[in-house]
Amino acid sequence: MNQIINFLGENIQMIYIIILSVFVGVEVIGKVPAVLHTPLMSGANAIHGVVIVGAIIVMLNTPAENILSLALGFVAVVFGTLNVVGGFAVTDRMLEMFKKKK
Amino acid sequence: MEIKYILDIIYLVASVTFVLGLKMLSHPDSARKGNLYAAFGMTLAIVGTILLYNHSDGYTSREPIKIILILAAIGVGTVAGWLTASKVQMTKMPELVSLFNGMGGACAAIIGLMEYEHNLGKTGALATIIAGLIIGSVSFSGSVIAFLKLNETMKKPIRIPKYNILNTVVMITLVLFGAYIVYAQPEHLFLVVLLFVFALVYGVLFVIPIGGADMPVVISLLNSFTGLAAAFGGFLYQNQVMLTGGILVGSAGTILTLAMCKAMNRPLSNVIFGAFGGGTVAGSGAEVNGSIKDISISDTAILMNYAKKVVIVPGYGLAVAQAQHVIHELELLLEERGVEVVYAIHPVAGRMPGHMNVLLAESNVSYDKLVEMEDINPQFANTDVVLVVGANDVVNPAAKTDPSSPIFGMPILDVENATNIIVNKRSMNAGYAGIDNLLFYQPKTSMLFGDAKGVLAKLVSELKQM
What we know:
The structure holds two protein chains of two kinds. Chain A is mainly alpha-helical. Chain A has helices at 2-10, 12-30, 37-47, 51-61, 67-100. In chain A, helix 3 (37-47) runs antiparallel to helix 5 (67-100) and helix 4 packs antiparallel against helix 5. Chain B is an alpha/beta fold. Chain B contains 17 helices and six strands. Chain B has helices at residues 3-24, 31-52, 64-87, 93-115, 123-150, 163-184, 190-207, 215-236, 240-263, 268-274, 297-305, 316-320, 324-336, 355-362, 373-376, 398-401, 452-464; strands spanning 309-314, 340-345, 370-372, 385-389, 420-425, 445-449. In chain B, helix 5 (123-150) packs antiparallel against helix 8 (215-236) and helix 8 (215-236) runs antiparallel to helix 9. Chain B is elongated and about 80 Å long. At the A-B interface, helix 1, helix 2, helix 3, helix 4 and helix 5 of A face helix 1, helix 2, helix 3, helix 4 and helix 8 of B.
């Protein structure tokens, strides 16, 4: 019990962010018309590509001699970039088509 | 002034662009800009991290080799992601989203693998790492299976005997295994790698029994999983932008998943444990009686030419046949003749919610011609001709009348209220859910067999001569 309270207390700012972000996410998405669900899902997909920031941090914190870790980190950054760039590009392509109408 | 503060501010700006981007994505007029805002924020966050990030305990170093490797990785990812995204056909979109989602999951999993050793002794941090590792891995292997199912490399849902029990056992074992690692904190990485492999296996087991028709729900769910995995990473690094981005997608993805389940009128548990969409063919107890009636292209043309109102029901078959352009041509031609034409869009038509809208938008069909299910259903009663192209399950009356049918309870388009129903199909094969459709046997229904693109092209030329 003590441990849990300490953990929550030490990370209270993070927990605020989590709770508020949950509400923001629900609010923002709640009003989306069905026609935009696919682009939205694709856009959201690109946004969780922010995990690439973590991959970059891992690489920056890895000693330059640790080849195995650097190689793993390299793969992680490639995957993260694919998620980000591919996600945003494909969303843009979809939305471009919506624009052309009329 | 501390450098750290500049990075914090950059992360703040990026987080705001994510919220703003998602918000703008919810309106057709601002959607594209919203996507670009979020992309801009992401670029800021990435560049800021490379240049300014420093670990509070001074682990961070910027040897040239590391910076080169990071930039090279970003270069490779950018070129590959950009090329795939700009070359892919719009019909293949859902697969691609699934694949990109898996990449994000894999990225989160690798971060977990690498951070484990650095955080031995810190129970809170380890719990975060292991949670991110498990969720990221499940999301990765699950997305790959969803990808294979959608591009039909893996056609039949694979039946594992008692898979519900098996999956639950595997899931519980996975959680216990993870908890054990957090508790025991083995110094050697072997057990962690084993956990990683085990999580991958669970991802496969999780998605494999789910039928193709439910893949959109699964992708949406895995999307929010990856969001969660990213958020765990953010928690670990006390990194606000990862946390906001990840949680936003996690909660948005969950809402979207539930919205999709609601459109199919099935609880999420039913999608995951119900194993719908294959193997259940025999479960449909309704007897097929009555016979099928053919209609020729010229009869169809006459019927449409003299109709007041035509409703087109497009399905995935339309997209597969690449017939979205010719159907737009048909629509314009009929409008010229004074026929009112609209499209009835079922929420789960295609392979993703809203997929059909994207496909039709690609061929310049006007936005206001696409009518959603609740609005179109009352209109069928005064519709002269309904043209169903490549859709099946979304017009199957068994969803209303046959409690033994696997799609029972799913809201459908009430096309049977129209005066004439013309169904274009390649053959009498069952739809994606693998069940027979009684609509085809009704007296009002005529079948127009053939490839959608070819048939519609002939229909257009026939109409032009009239």
